[in-house]
Design goal:
Blueprint: H1 6-50, E1 55-69, E2 73-87, E3 92-103, E4 108-119, E5 124-134, E6 140-152, E7 155-161, E8 163-166, E9 176-192, H2 194-234
Antiparallel strand pairs: 1-2, 1-9, 2-3, 3-4, 4-5, 5-6, 6-7, 6-8, 7-9
Helix pairs in contact: 1-2
């Protein structure tokens, strides 16, 4: 067997020791960088939660059911959509509805479409409607009118006036009415204001770039180790 000098043994041992130390250091650095990045993400989330955006927009739509009382009594059934700005200062909500009302006693059906708005938290709603009525016998009326109400927890109490034209014989229609509706939401969507969305998108892009750079560093480190070990085998 060939005799290996002591100096060669020492150099070989030192090289193996240095490679193991450098690999452990690199692994420790990678794990620390990952931990620091995760901590940074947590800190960003905490800062974001500590200082939430001032504006949150909500869009939803659903079903309304109600009871109308005036000269006659009628039931209401239809749909409604809401556009709401939820904010600490000056919140508001805009609603658009389309519904059918039916008077069983007089056999009169009506169709109504309208919009309303509320500013503030506990304020009145202001809006208006366009209407059309038919008694299934050829008589009909149509018109429009304002409405004022109060909305709380899905309930909407409305007091309105119908200013109508058409057949005068069709008289059993509520010109002044009050009704109580309840709104069943079907779908809700929330979106932040544009500034907050831009900040969140920029933060996501930064995290993606940092992740890509970490992966590139891992690949380059792996290639370096492969080259070192392959060179030793060739020797």
């Amino acid at each position: 067997m060939p005799i290996v000098p002591i100096s060669m043994k020492v150099i070989l041992c030192l090289s193996i020791l240095l490679i193991s130390i450098s690999s452990n250091a690199q692994l420790a650095f990678t794990s620390n960088s990952q931990n620091s990045n995760s901590l940074q993400e947590l800190q960003d989330d905490k800062i974001y939660m500590a200082s939430p955006p001032k504006k949150l927009f909500q869009r939803n739509h659903g079903v309304i059911i109600g009871l109308q009382k005036g000269r006659s009594t009628a039931i209401e059934l239809g749909g409604e959509a809401h556009w709401r700005k939820m904010a600490l200062a000056k919140p508001h909500i805009i609603g658009a509805s389309g519904n059918m009302e039916y008077n069983f006693g007089d056999n009169v059906i009506g169709y109504k479409a309208g919009m309303w708005m509320k500013r503030g938290r506990i304020n009145l709603t202001y809006g208006g409607n366009v209407t059309y009525f038919n008694d299934f016998k050829g008589l009909q009326k149509y018109g429009a009118g304002p409405a004022v109400g109060f909305r709380l927890l899905g309930f909407h109490l409305i007091n309105g006036v119908n200013i109508l034209g058409g057949d005068k014989e069709l008289s059993k229609i509520n010109t002044v009415y009050i009704n109580l509706r309840y709104y069943f939401p079907v779908q809700n969507k929330f979106t932040w204001d544009r500034k907050t969305l831009k900040k969140r998108e920029a933060r996501k892009k930064e995290r993606a770039k940092e992740k890509e750079s970490r992966e590139n560093e891992k690949e380059s480190l792996g290639d370096t180790f492969k080259k070192l070990f392959s060179g030793k085998k060739d020797e």
